[in-house]
Amino acid sequence: MHRLSRLSCGVNRSAVRQPYSNRLDRDTVATEAKEIFDANTRSLKELLCQNGLGLYIPAYQRPYGWDKAKVSRLIDDTLHGLAGLASSPDTFTFLGTVITIHDTNFATVHPAVRSETPSKVLTVIDGQQRLTTLLALTACLHAQIRVRHWRLFRGSQPSVEDEALTYLHDQTQQVLAPLAMSFAEVQQYGDVRIYPRMIRAFVDQWARKRPNNIYDSPLAHLIFDYATRAQEEDASGTRPTDYRARVRDEDVSAEGEADLVRRYADMRGYLNRLAAGEAGAEDMEALPPLAVLAADPGLQRATLGHEMPLAASSYLQEEPATSAAELARLLILAAYVLNRIALTVVQGKDENYAFTIFESLNTTGEPLTAIETFGPRVVRAEGLGEYSSSPARALFDDVKSYVEGFRAGDPRQNATRDLLVAFALAETGTKLSKRLADQRMYLKDEFERYVHSPQGRYEFLTSLRDTSSLVRSTWADAAQPLPDLPADSTTDTIRLCMSFLRQMNHSVTLGLMARYYSRAVRATGEARLDAARDLEAVLKAVTAFTVLWRGSRRTTGNIDQQHRELMMGTDNRTGMPRIARSKRRAEDAGMCHELPSVTALRAELSARLASAGGVADREQWLSLSKSLPHYSISTTLTRFMLLAAYHDSVEDSGDPGLLRQGRPDANPCLNWQSWNKSELMTIEHVAPQQMNSPGWASELYADKELVDRLGNLCLAPKAVNSSLGIRPWAEKRVLYRALGSRTHEEALAQLEAAQERGITFVQSTEELVNASHHMPHLVAVGQRSEEWNVEFVDERTERVLGLVWDRLRPWLEA
């Protein structure tokens, strides 16, 4: 019976098979599944004591970061399993699944002395935190057993007549050998024969000769330092060092070293207490009493693999010397760790399959983002020696700093996903799925096209960096300026359009924006100013296209597909070339395509709006839009349309209740400031949404959608919602006139006149006056003295839609 540790991962057999169901032919699933991965459950000794085994941590793996609680849990699980052997000799402590690649060609090993690399390299995709902890534990056990052995024997052989001590001496050697082999392997020849069992990419290198042997990562350094000292002490017969790991000086210390050193110190403390017969910690089990261990042949067979000789068993049951008791306890614990801690080791065919398996098995872990796994490819392409000073590093560091600004887990994964979806669209026009495996594959495949082209790699990383710069700045918060451009380049219109598109969740436009933004960033002199102006014109065109497309239908009308076709250059009505930087074709790699002009983009968007969208002119726009309940379709879209209609509009004195276009700057509304004004924040229903509201014609509710049409809507100050409420039309129009008055004095006069007529307000007159702001659209509504009826709502809807068209359609014209 296996005890599933609290550190273990859940295994879903069907989930393991599922990722391949759409890739493999049914007749070959069984055969190819064996080639894709192999899974075996092994004891720690079976896994780590293989001759020629090297465990390899890829550079994208996070630094060691286990806290004290996790180490305590691991040791407590071990103690619980050991205690369970007394009643169940089949007990194991199972620590979950480790995902690896059997790197037969050393493709993941960098740097490497190929002829001196271990013959079997397993690259660790998942499980490096557990393996690091277990290797540190076996090294710590090795050190503490050597110390206890010296205290008991002082470097001398026991008398052969003393069977008990002879057994302890011999058993120590039998346990120390596999313990030592678990964390390091001693080579048969060479200047440096000690190979740490696990090393890290880019900072470590297995080698038998100095100075090629490099062990600078926290774990490799700890293992090499301890194993070297132990080897020297054994050779000279000197007293063993009670080894204590140290953090190196700042100039050589590596990330994660402080955590590893602390955890090693915790283990040393636990082992000292356990050796003394105490509990490892307050909430941790103690080892079973030594008398019980020494008297139980079944437990001895389960841990040591044999029964103790009678002399040794009797000696240990009769309160032996402290040093002997402590040594015996640690020997039994070490034997359990080696033989009864188990891991399932999955060996994947390659990195992509290994990650897929990991994501299928993983239920509690934290997968690495596609950006994290992409980093080592950038380093390898530039070269280890050249990377630190290369432009590639500066570009990639910018991207990393963006995604690492999000909390690890879902927030970081989601941010990386959104970035890469936008980047793939900008780079190749590709619709990248949200699956992590597809994101990793896309970055790998596209970047490898430029493996022999430094300029191609630079362009690729620049495109990725520029996309992340845009996503992290004005797109995320329109109050932020566009980075790497003059401050005045981030115009009011750019802020307005980006804020609108973001609130519409129209992220498919990011790829297009990123391309024109990137051109502006990379331009110089007058060309940069022109490119920045082009970026604003592009945003206006995209915004107008979005409003006129979405405002003329109940659904999105698959508008995202229109943008993807623009990026790919497929089915373009005007023959405009694609906007994406390159194609996904090997022969096209490295080619940077000239961006279409703003004029060409406007023409293409206009043509698509007419052909695919069915909105060729003002008449078609009105015909498609006038019956739509825009409020229930999208409040963000509705608010933008109302602001567009109000922009520079004034009351129509010839048609009370309606607006008409005024002179320029008569009433600026379509801007960033108005988009954020509290006075224009709330969409108000003139005729209330509730049916049978007093003072309103029942015909208004015959068509349940009519109250949500633009003709029954207006923007009003958020602060006066409670006063507007569901008042009768005769009272509401008075309040509209007051709230839209040119001056506070005028507003006060109208409110006082209303009170004299018996109209009361929820808020005080002072509050209402302070909320008033000159708003011609409210004044216009308040000027209608006739009944608010169906005919007028229809008329007002057409007038508002006409103003929207007249304001936005020019944004699509050359």
From TrEMBL:
Annotated signal sequence range: none
Protein name: DUF262 domain-containing protein
Residue ranges of domain GmrSD restriction endonucleases C-terminal in the record: 676-758
One Pfam family, short name: GmrSD_C
InterPro entries linked to this entry: GmrSD_C, GmrSD_N
Domain GmrSD restriction endonucleases N-terminal intervals: 44-374
